[in-house]
Design goal:
The structure is a homodimer. Chain A is α/β, with parallel strands linked by helices. In chain A, strands 6, 7, 8, 9, 10, 11 and 12 form a seven-stranded mixed sheet that branches. The first copy, chain A, has a five-stranded parallel sheet with strand order 2-1-3-4-5. In chain A, α5 packs across α13, α8 packs across α9 and α10 runs parallel beside α11. Chain A is elongated, with a radius of gyration of 25 Å. The structure holds a DNA duplex. Chains A, B: Keywords: DNA-binding, Transcription, Transcription regulation.
Chain lengths: 340, 340
DNA sequence: CGAAATATGATGTACGTTCGTCAAAACAGC
DNA sequence: GCTGTTTTGACGAACGTACATCATATTTCG
């Protein structure tokens, strides 16, 4: 009582194996009448192609290249680890994944890495995009050579890439504001915002979403201009400390980038720390949640993103559709009590 | 440049294909020296067994049985749908899933359904457990016959089942309290709690966790005794309305069970509605979040639970290890802004 | 009607693994 | 060194699909 095979389909449709194969893979012209008979048989038998056998016979070999920012950014390191991990698992499906790390925030490096890619030897590329004309151009050229490109975490204009794997950062910013706004209560004042760099689309979008909600729903709270800490802890600490010193009415802190060790260091020097929301769940932020130094963490799950990116690339290389829902990455909220 | 195959391993190890096979599948006795040579070769070549080919050759056919409570419970219906959905996807891997719904909370029905299972024709069972001696016994007997058993949503003592797929409800309750406590601000008063039935283990646990956090971190907030609404909307509306009329200092509402349409109906009649937290994301709760009638939803993702249960069963049937992390189900928090 | 064009069938090999059978080799004990 | 046991090798058939080649059947059109 196993599943139906193409043999069964052929038998039921009253045609040969070859014809079923032709219909199934759109190989040569098949007369409409014959095609219908085959398709009817497939429906009647509830035929599903055995993907395992198909890939085995195809002897497909995929090589995907992941371009990730290097440096200390914990999230990116987790993402790198997850991609490697998942690569192992997908190895069974003859998928080979190479991860290359590049200097962070370095558009030139990204651009030249993209240009060095030989379109013939790579079946797909995933990158954390830095949106500059040079990078756009390199991506365009890759795609022109038939290499699918997926953006990870930080996006490019949608016409440039096949797919984006990551969260909607405007909504992430909105979520942060909804949380922080409620956590702050009725007290009026300023919110200090620490960002990485405005060159990154995702950081700009988070700030935008944050302000949207703040001005609409919590007009007594005003976000200060984002501090550009370049994902560096020391810079973040310095800038935030300065700001905290300058303003005596800061009632909340939102850090939308990395370098959070600096943010917490600055908070630690305060007598009473205001409600604080950060991004990304690391061993540090987990500890800060548990110790009550911060109140909430917003994250995108690196494991999901890795999986989603690889699956998307595989699906695209197979010319198949893929479940959007399953591959969607959500905006997760963590408090002390729902840590994974 | 493809991946190494058993042929490569055999060549490098200087043994025959058969011997590699014997080592790989622990078939017959292989002398330790030979086994080592083979294992060294596998390591050297970074050999990974082609699971697709293996399953193809094995002609494995898995049949998993899911026993879920029937009835109106939206969450269970979503879970049922997801299991079916995922079953389709796994069909490619020759996994066949049958879902059987039983009268909800009916230990007798569950027990007899379990006893009717023919261990020979089923490779694994997942069930939403009702913990009674009869059910325990039926589960024990199934496992004794070599059928892996996974509990779903509601657990059994851990020595009885192979694995539990679901959330920790104490922590779910704690999460609710952490959110609601912060949302309520400094105002002192009571929190109204609506439950399904205190006889249900998971509801009791949520209430427990809720109170833990409330008394520890928000002592100015006091949870009223849980209203037993029996997951019925009308009952919930009546009980909650009564309570709201009796107490003029209710500053927050926590509904930890089903029947939330009634809860919201009661809130709707108030002039100013207090912060409200519910469980499970449905089309309704989603609407209430967007319209601002409620403030947060806590959920366990039915899609993840379905996937996780199936994956766990597949992995166990293959005698393979599985990624605990990947299969873990988290306690998710949704606000208006991070809805999926 | 017959030739050319088109559609279909028949057949075989391959993918990487499993599993069975049988023969050959290596080893043990005496 | 012979026998008996254990270990290994050689081979082949399957699993369900892909793909190529060649032969034959069917249609189309002048």
């Amino acid at each position: 009582m196993g599943r139906a095979t193409i043999h069964d389909v052929a038998r039921v449709a009253g045609v040969s194996l070859s014809t079923v194969d032709r219909v199934l893979n759109g190989r040569e012209t098949v007369r409409p009448g014959t095609r219908d008979r085959v398709e009817d048989a497939m429906r009647a038998l509830n035929y599903v192609r055995n993907a395992a056998a198909a890939n085995l016979a195809r002897k497909r070999d995929f090589r995907f290249l992941f371009l990730l920012p290097g440096g200390q950014n914990t999230f990116m390191r987790m993402l790198e680890a997850e991609v490697g991990d998942y690569g192992q698992q997908f190895a069974a499906d003859s998928v080979d994944i190479e991860v290359r790390t590049l200097p962070p925030f370095d558009a030139e490096a990204l651009q030249s890495a993209l240009k060095q890619i030989d379109p013939g030897s790579v079946s797909g590329v995933a990158l954390v995009a830095v949106d500059t004309p040079g990078v756009r151009d390199a991506v365009r050229s890759l795609r022109a050579h038939g290499v699918p490109v997926v953006t990870l975490v930080s996006d490019l204009p949608s016409e440039l890439r096949e797919h984006f794997v990551g969260i909607n950062n405007i909504w992430a910013g909105r979520t942060a504001a909804s949380l922080l706004g409620r956590f702050c209560g009725r007290a009026a004042g300023h919110i200090a915002v620490v960002a990485g760099s405005t060159v990154l689309q995702d950081h700009a979008e988070r700030y935008l979403g944050f302000q949207q909600v703040l001005s609409a729903d919590f007009p007594h709270l005003v976000a200060l201009p984002a501090l550009e800490a370049l994902d560096d802890a020391e810079t973040a600490e310095r800038l935030l400390s300065e700001t905290l010193a300058q303003h005596d009415d800061i009632v909340g802190i939102y850090s939308l980038g990395a370098g959070n060790r600096g943010v917490v260091a600055a908070i630690d020097r305060l007598e009473r720390s205001p409600p604080t929301v950060l991004h990304e769940l690391t061993e540090y932020s987990r500890g800060w949640l548990l110790s009550g130094k911060i109140d909430a963490v917003i994250r995108q799950d690196p494991a999901r993103e890795a999986r989603s990116a690889i699956r998307t690339l595989v699906a695209m290389s197979n010319g198949k559709s893929f479940h959007r829902d399953e591959n969607r990455v959500g905006i997760e909220i963590f408090l002390r009590d729902n840590l994974p």
